Amino acid sequence: MYIDGVFSGGGIKGFALIGAIEEVERRGFRFKRVAGTSAGSIIAALVIAGYTGEEIYQLIEELDLETFMDPRTFLIPFPIAKWLFFYWRLGLYKGNALETWLQEKLAAKGLRTFADLPPQSLRVIASDLSNGRLLVLPDDLQKYGIHQDTFPIAKAIRMSCSLPFFFEPVKLRTKSGTNIIVDGGVLSNFPMWLFDKEHVKKVRPVLGIKLSRNTYDLPQHKITNALQLFEALFETMKDAHDARYISRKHEKNIIFIPTERFMTTEFSLTEENKQALLSLGRKSAKQFFTKWSY
Q1: I need a labelling partner for 202 at 20 to 30 A (CA). Which of 30, 76, 125, 294 fits?
Q2: CA 253 from centre of chain
Q3: Which candidate, 100, 125, 69, places its Cα nearest to that of 238?
Q4: Cis peptide before 138 (omega within 30 of 0)
């Protein structure tokens, strides 16, 4: 049976998405259209390219995740250069290695630009800081005078994954200037709203997979110092838009995976934690399917 899917962001915690997808496929479901943010955009792109959950796991299992941490080369002493480049380049790592890896894996399935995909089959979220605007890619490219059919899929995913200060932002150059694009999770980390049009009946069931607890079960932020204030500020900014959308009506179509104990940027993820995330994804999906009525 075909369904539409939405995958949330969460960095390295995205391993849990793979475990959930394996269970979804085991139940006989296949994804027709997908959407995602950040890590969820990577998974969405690989799924729509035709990779199974098990194949996605193998792709990432064969990969040294730390290769995605690609710093720039320096001609001055490293401790100084690192922070100078951070100041001017706006991120610790280039992000080129991630984009190159995605290009290779998508090209292996015959995908390079959005022209190689059915319309609306893949949409990802990014954030345009220059214009203070949420971007739905490839749909919104026309606003920048860019034809979506010519735009590389891997570039769009790279834009969605540009975690602020960690990866350098993508500079989207147009005739009107340069736009600074960062991680879509800044504005919408779980874009399930993309498949919800008012007064329009859904063609297929929409299944969401979210790397967090149910919104109503999340504990309050503890704020007693400046660091906790920043963490709470970022978490609120990241989740408030989507939390407002996710009502009791939508919850029944979402697999919630409680991954709070794992770090988003843990690129040196141990094999034990990797397996724990996969297992958590499978377990959460199994529990979900005991009561899902589509």
Answers
A1: 125
A2: 19
A3: 125
A4: yes
Token pair belonging to 12? 């390295």
d(CA 4, CA 47): 11
Structure token pair of residue 163: 């975690």
> Which tens digits make up the pLDDT trace of 99-144?
999 999 999 999 999 999 999 999 999 999 999 999 999 999 999 9
CA dist., res. 114 & res. 140, Å (int): 13
CA 214 to chain centre: 18
**What SS3 state is found at 220?**
coil
Q: What pTM was computed for the model? A: 0.86
One-letter identity of residue 271: E
Would you place residue 37 in the very low, low, confident or very high pLDDT band (cuts 50, 70, 90)? very high
Annotated catalytic, 183? yes
Distance CA 281, CA 19 (A): 5
Catalytic residue among 38, 41, 127, 162: 38
Amino acid at 198: E
- Cβ–Cβ < 8 Å for 38, 11: yes
Q: Which of 258, 255, 195, 259 is nearest to 23 (CA)?
A: 255
Please tell me what DSSP assigns to residue 151: S
Coil, strand or helix at 125: strand
